From TrEMBL:
Source organism: Streptomyces evansiae
Keywords for this protein: Signal
InterPro entries per UniProt: DUF6801
Stretches with biased composition (Acidic residues): 245-261
Heme listed as a keyword: no
Region (Disordered): 205-273
Start and end residues of each DUF6801 domain: 51-198
Name the record gives this protein: DUF6801 domain-containing protein
Residues in the signal sequence: 1-39
Length: 515
């Protein structure tokens, strides 16, 4: 992640990468999918894989590529039969990283824990599919000395079912790893298989003459999937099936992902108040993109509308990641407590939203809303390096709303082309790095963002001399309108792509309304 240094100055220089980590890359890889019947827990096999992990420097920007060794232990039978789920049992992954390269990640921590998301490429004949797994990294003590840091992870993984004969190959793919030190902010890492070496996790034979046992044969549609003496555990939603299909196209991502936005940051959301001493470091930024979807609640209407509806054609957020890094201290004296901040710039052109409400509690009103959104500033940091709970994430932008295509009680209402908020309003969203359910560690990892906005009065509403400004101001304008957004992990392009193509996240859940 960055060069290792000695003394307080070097530790402070390393701190921002803990928060920005994302560009980083981390180890992990292990996953698998298994073969024919239940795996034999007493016959584990281990694959030793080579990975390349990209570590950021002290500013949080991508810098050093570090070689990693990942041992993936599975419990797979040597052969399988078509139509029978392949169960890998409990998967164990031990990621080995050079200790010198990782010491700057956690300069003050004694232990780390976390989780991993692994991908495995499953191939048979010309068919292929992808399996995604989640593993847990138990608390691991950080060695004070030694040549390497070993991070063990384990977990039960979904099964894989093949429907034809032929050798099945399991190849390790991209791995993401989120580490939570006992002191400091979480670190998000990602790794990719090292070039030139096949990341083979396992190989399973599926013979032509393999018979499907009666007690393991898949149930017919609508049948009882739990019947039979050899029935396995209840099927998981992420179990996958490899069926004959056309070759998948090469992985690609939208052209917008390489087109980084330009503009000025809104530095008014900076956390540490003066007086403090810091050194802002301007950076070129990293090309990235991500989808962000959400729900906006109009308090006066006690209703909500979808923002960037994932079921339609959601807009992609373009990101210039890590355009500035702030290193600082709370005092001028040597050794005073430090802080760090990482800034990113984003841009998104949201599609129109369609909303329906019972205006004033009885009158059905439907309208389309156009969003005019300014440049987005994304800030993550930790103002008190000795207190991990002080870590924060803040996203801020200016926005205006325009109403059109209004229908009142089934009758169109001509509001004209300029029915809009009289001025733009500030949107400030916050992410919780320490959340156990949906943390927002940084722009690279994404997560849940929440906030409340005050919608200004409306102007320009009505035609032919009719003034409808008061109607919409009374029905919509005011404070405490909640906005909840889920940002997916970013697709990082460039010479070391990660997380591509970008994925569309689920909508965030609405919080229960208080009585």
């Amino acid at each position: 992640m960055r060069a290792t240094g000695r003394g307080a100055g070097a530790r402070r220089a390393a701190r921002p990468a803990r928060v920005a980590a994302a560009t980083a890359t981390a180890l992990m890889l292990g996953l698998l999918t298994g073969t024919g019947s239940q795996a034999d827990e007493d016959s584990p096999t281990t694959a030793d894989l080579a990975y390349a992990c990209r570590f950021p420097d002290s500013t949080g920007a991508p810098a050093t590529t570090v070689d990693a060794r990942v041992e993936v232990t599975t419990r797979l039978p040597g052969s399988a039969v078509p139509g029978s789920p392949i169960d890998a049992g409990t998967v164990e992954v031990a990621a080995h990283l050079p200790r010198a390269a990782t010491s700057a990640l956690f300069p003050d921590a004694r232990e780390v824990s976390g989780s991993a998301a692994l991908g495995v490429d499953v191939r048979q004949n010309k068919d292929r599919t992808r399996a995604d797994w989640s593993l847990v990294t138990a608390g691991t003590e950080l060695p004070a000395q030694g040549a390497e840091l070993v991070l063990p992870s384990s977990g039960k993984v979904p099964t894989i079912t093949v429907n034809s004969a032929g050798r099945v190959l399991l190849l390790g793919g991209e791995a993401r790893f989120v580490l939570q030190p006992d002191v400091g902010a979480p670190v998000s890492l990602a790794c990719s298989p090292a070039p030139g070496r096949e990341p083979r996790v396992a190989e399973i034979a599926v013979p032509e003459d393999a018979a499907v046992p009666e007690d393991t044969r898949p149930a017919s549609p609508g049948g009882d999937h739990s019947s039979g003496p050899a029935a396995r555990e209840e099927a998981r939603e992420d179990d996958v099936t490899l069926s004959p299909q056309e070759d998948e196209p090469a992985v690609s991502w939208p052209d917008e992902c390489d087109d980084m936005p330009t503009g000025e940051l809104d530095t008014s959301v900076s956390a540490p108040p003066p007086p403090y001493h810091f050194n802002p470091i301007p950076l070129d930024g990293v090309p990235m993109c991500a989808y962000a979807v959400g729900i906006s609640t109009v308090r006066k209407q006690n209703g909500s509308m979808l923002i960037n509806d994932p079921s339609g054609k959601p807009a992609l957020m373009r990101v210039r990641g890590v355009v500035r890094s702030d290193l600082g201290d709370w005092g001028a004296e040597p050794g005073s407590e430090g802080f760090n901040q990482i800034w990113s710039l984003a841009e998104i052109h949201l599609p129109d939203a369609r909303a329906s409400f019972l205006s004033f509690g009885y009158l059905p009103v439907t309208a389309s809303v156009t969003f005019e959104t300014g440049k987005v500033t994304i800030l993550t940091g930790q103002p008190h390096m000795n207190d991990p709970t002080s870590a924060f994430a803040r996203i801020v932008f200016q926005q205006s709303l325009r109403l059109h295509d209004v229908v009142v009680n089934g009758t169109p209402l001509d509001v004209g082309p300029s029915c809009r908020t009289a001025k733009s309003f500030r949107v400030l969203l916050n992410g919780d790095m320490n959340s156990k359910e949906n943390p927002y560690v940084n722009v690279f990892s994404g997560g849940l963002l929440t906030g409340k906005v005050t919608i200004p009065a409306f102007t320009g509403c009505g035609t032919a001399g009719e003034n409808l400004n008061g109607l919409f101001t009374a029905a919509i304008s005011g404070p405490d309108n909640e906005l909840r957004m889920n940002q997916a992990p970013t697709c990082v392009t460039g010479d070391f792509p990660s997380g591509c193509p970008p994925v569309v996240p689920e909508l965030p859940r609405l919080r229960p309304t208080s009585s």
